Amino acid sequence: MNLSSLGFFRSLRKDNSQFAVIGLGRFGRSVCSTLHKFGYEVLATDIDEKRVSQALTEQITSHALQLDSTESAALKEAGIFEFDTVIVAIGNYVQESIVTTLNVKEGGVPHIVAKASSEVHCKLLHKVGADHVVFPEYEAGCALARTLTKPSILDRFDLDPDNSIVEVIVPDEFHGKTIADLQLRNRYGLNLLAVSQDGKFQINPDPYKRFERGSAMVVIGCNKDINKLPI
Fold it and tell me: Which residues form the RCK C-terminal domain (predicted)?
């Protein structure tokens, strides 16, 4: 799981052990697969029987059902309304997405995460009951743009519009210097969270550890300060 995916999984309630995912497109499949790997019980649904069969064959979910989520009765019969968190992953079919979200909210589900394809779609989803809305394509586009303009940044997680956690390649001028030598907090206003070594990260590394060219480090701070790094 990379840093960018944390934004979505942070929206899920930490006390849950069961999730329902409606829609088995690329986004829905990715959510199902990741939750399933984390050991959660996942019920997946889709109107397309082939997608349901594929999900079961590939074992990316605990259970999968074919149903029309715009039919409230079908959702109730499948037990969707009994879940604490439901992810509506039908982002590319606006009407079906909105009707499904409304059905789930009226069914009494306390927490709904929905995928949107536009700002208008996002507003409509919030109005009919979505508690959290995600834009996977938009977020992927932003990540690509950052990669192209800042190739030394390997991964990024935006905490808010002004602050981020980033994984960056150690700059050449940091090579051979210790963490204490660089004084990242005083010079750049950044806090060092981890440094990679032999493919693994050391959390809260020793201040006398030396940086190595080609390794990576994870820092947290203001975006303006992050941009001051020699990367």
Answer: 152-231
